[in-house]
């Protein structure tokens, strides 16, 4: 399931980026909801929030390492966990979509701009990555809370052992 989701995400991402790059000029905008949301075609030569600007080789290496980690986590932990597989697929597809841009173009095509809050321009792949990471963090947090609860129950039983 991970690779199916990743393939779909990467394909959608690349299709949208192709449409944007062939129908818009760089740094041009199309208002979707005036004052709130617009399509703004930019060429992002950095990572999230344009950090590591013009560090293309480093960003490619980081993306390849992240993809390797995702594949490892999938093989090791996700076999019978559909939601985890979907989250990893979103993460993998987003990473691959942006990696394709970086290798092919030397930059990532970004196009969604939330003008109302002046949020940095992003793309579909970025959105999939964020959704996946939020899910994975919440899942880890929940698992930790459950483990702490189990540990507390075990301690309570040890303390009360033999007492009515």
Automatic annotation (TrEMBL):
This protein specifically catalyzes the removal of signal peptides from prolipoproteins. This is Lipoprotein signal peptidase. It comes from Sulfoacidibacillus thermotolerans. Its main location: membrane. Belongs to the peptidase A8 family. Pfam families: Peptidase_A8. The active site is at residues 110, 126. Pathway: Protein modification; lipoprotein biosynthesis (signal peptide cleavage). InterPro entries: Peptidase_A8 (IPR001872).
